[in-house]
Amino acid sequence: MAAATKRQSRTQRKARGGARGGFETLKSEEIFTEAKDLMPGGVSSPVRAFKSVGGNPVVFDRVKGAYAWDVDGNQYVDYVGTWGPAIIGHADDKVLKALSTQMEKGTSFGAPCALENELAKMVIDAVPSVEMVRFTNSGTEACMGMLRLVRAFTKRDVVVKFEGCYHGHGDAFLVQAGSGVATLGLPDSPGVPKGATTSTLCAEYNNLESVEELLKNNEVAAVILEPVVGNSGFIPPTKEFLVGLRELTTKYGALLVFDEVMTGFRIAYGGAQEHFGVTPDVTTMGKVIGGGLPVGAYGGRKDIMEMVAPAGPMYQAGTLSGNPLAMTAGIETLKRLKEPGSYEYLDKITGKLINGILDAAKEHGHQVCGGHISGMFGFFFCEGPVTCFADATKSDTEKFAKWHRMMLQKGIYLAPSQYEAGFTSLAHTEEDIDRTIAAAKEVFAAL
Question: From the candidates 14, 161, 287, 410, which is the catalytic residue?
């Protein structure tokens, strides 16, 4: 047996041994204890702190394929995937090779590079609504630029978002937001001036009447939504809801914006708009298009995008936007996703995973509902169905927290919040799915 194979076998034995009672996180505890004196809450992003599931987080040391290893050597099957970008698997060899080649040329230019053109053409070819694109450094930044753009183009200030939908931490969006805001139980955020949110109105997801009421009584610049909610847990739309939004926004002169930071290139190569056959006016993107490196983008019809400086008067800029490393990782990731069978495989393994978890819950008398689209999934500890954020809040978060910790101890790493979607990758195998379902059965039996 080769040395590398022996090392891998020892790692796997340790991980599975931890599931039987040898799970230790002493180094993680030490590092996190120190981190709490160095960073607010010990983290650089709130959900990582495990506040809603109890206990302290494990501290990652490395990732590869479908797996993560913490600093104590525990191995996990990872269903967070850095919150979505790792769709072809962590640290993919082809991506790493391309990044290594690019690093020899430089890590940042602050000037135009050909890689921007290449990734831009791939995005434009793939996403139905996008005729021009502007790259940014994060999904939040993309959404902030998008918000300024829709207001500039329509000459209107009011925007409509949906309860539980998260569009980054920009002031105007922190109104009944999901993600970490929902996880921590914060209705809004201190430090956001009243004036920043007076032009943000909230509707109920999957409820067209609530949207039309707002459109009738306000001059609305745009209706903005996650076409599949991932920041209140996994909540799919009805096709009628998306079609209705397209019709209503056209009727009232507002723009329709899909925030596809999470769903873009995740549930289909052309995103949710390809999957559902509904084309918005503007789209925001991130995560997958950076292949694991920091990136975001917003794009849309050419007449709208030409409002953006320097083509037009709407100003937005970024020193690291279009960074050559992020462009390289994005290009290589999209090349892999475009290969035949990619999304069929994601749908197959994710369907098996979520159905196995739901069946295991039912077998042991627990009320759990959920679903998936391609490589995105989620479940709630309630009877369901869950069609909006109000439904999601009925979930038994205490039971979920116990379940989460018990799964973690068995080597299964899931999003540490009931209000976050989960993700699979092309690197996940049938064996990984079987192992996860087996762990779920054991945990549900003991819960």
Answer: 287
